[in-house]
Design goal:
The chain is 26% helix and 38% strand. It contains eight helices and 15 strands. The strands form two sheets. The protein has an eight-stranded antiparallel beta sheet with strand order 1-2-8-7-6-5-4-3, covered by helices on one side. Strands 9-15-14-13-12-11-10 form a seven-stranded antiparallel beta sheet.
């Protein structure tokens, strides 16, 4: 997916792209806080949503947090809302030197996917020229994040992938995103081939011994973490392998024979956790979106999983630091 700049009027900037998802799903990703919070903005940005009411006259107040820690307060006033077809709004910022502008977003069916077209209209030609220096690339990155996120939504997954993962209100899945300075074919290989996984997978200070590897739906990757008082065994059971775009697998701690066992440090942790990963490329870099959720888990285990999101973020982040460093050795 590549967002394309469309030349138009002197005060307009227009970006368009096709995403591989139906209009209903794309519109939900734009308008529901549980979705838009995960992808809105360029690479490295996070969001805090204070209010979101998608209706004519409704407001969306949010703060974007930049990679350097700078906060960017924003407010949107919706003027038009046509479900699954069109959004039009007035976008303002609390920054005095950032004039307000108008935005129109349209959604149209195209080749079993959706054509998203985003038009910004700024107050003057000079302001449009100034904004163009950063808004075009920021828009391309934002739409790339949208594309990657859409592939992890529950609605995007086949029934066989989601088997045992019943959605429950108030229990958000764990969602993680990261950009790697590597093409996605290389990243996919590093995340799926045993010789590569043995070099980076797992916490810092731990080694990995590959027990077996069979990369196919129904196949398993079995491993042993080394470097502690005793080896820790685990496995992935693959549910989807779509190279180089998406992976889905069930993660478990196991005994030495490969049977699932309880987390060695958290007995209330789910026995099985489904992970879904999408890889989306932009100019030689690759955006990774990962979604994790418990399978066949009773309430107590789901609550333990939810409470563990902050520590999961730290652990996954540290592991992907190792992957980042390893990728630089592959040239």
């Amino acid at each position: 997916m590549t967002a394309t700049l469309v030349e138009s009027g002197a005060r307009d900037l227009v970006l368009t792209c096709r995403v591989d998802a139906p209009r209903a799903r794309v519109f939900r990703a734009f308008t529901e806080p549980g979705h838009v919070i995960h992808w809105w903005g360029p690479f490295g940005f996070r969001n805090t949503i204070h209010e979101l009411s998608v209706r004519p006259g409704g407001r969306w107040r949010f703060t974007m947090h930049g990679p350097d820690g700078t906060d960017y307060p924003n407010e949107i006033l919706f003027r038009e809302v046509e479900a699954e077809q069109r959004l039009a709004y007035h976008h303002s910022s609390c920054a005095a030197d950032y004039p307000a502008f108008e935005v129109t977003i349209t959604f149209a069916d195209e080749d079993r996917g959706t054509r998203v077209t985003l038009r910004q209209t700024h107050p003057t030609e000079a302001r449009t020229a100034e904004v163009r220096t950063y808004a075009v690339e920021g828009g391309r990155q934002t739409l790339t994040r949208l594309d990657g996120y859409l592939g992890t939504m529950r609605e995007a997954l086949a029934a066989g992938v989601l088997e045992g993962a019943e959605p429950r209100a108030g229990e958000p899945d764990f969602v993680f995103t990261r950009v790697f300075a590597a093409p996605r074919e290389l990243l996919f290989r590093a995340m799926t081939e045993a010789a590569h996984l043995g070099r980076w997978f797992g916490p810092a200070g731990m080694g990995l011994r590959v027990v077996s590897s069979e990369l196919r739906p129904g196949g398993q990757f079995r491993y042993a973490m080394t470097g502690g008082p005793a080896d820790l065994f685990g496995r992935f059971v693959y549910r989807e392998v779509t190279a180089p775009a998406r992976l889905a697998y069930v993660v478990s701690f196991t005994d030495e024979a490969g049977a699932p066992v309880r987390h060695p440090l958290s007995p209330g942790w789910p026995l099985e956790v489904l992970s879904v990963l999408t890889l989306t490329e932009l100019d030689g870099r690759t955006l990774l979106f990962a979604r994790s959720l418990p399978l066949h888990a009773p309430l107590e285990e789901r609550q333990t999983f939810l409470a563990g999101h902050p520590s999961m973020g730290q652990g996954v982040g540290g592991m992907y630091d190792r992957l980042d460093a390893y990728l630089t050795t592959l040239g």
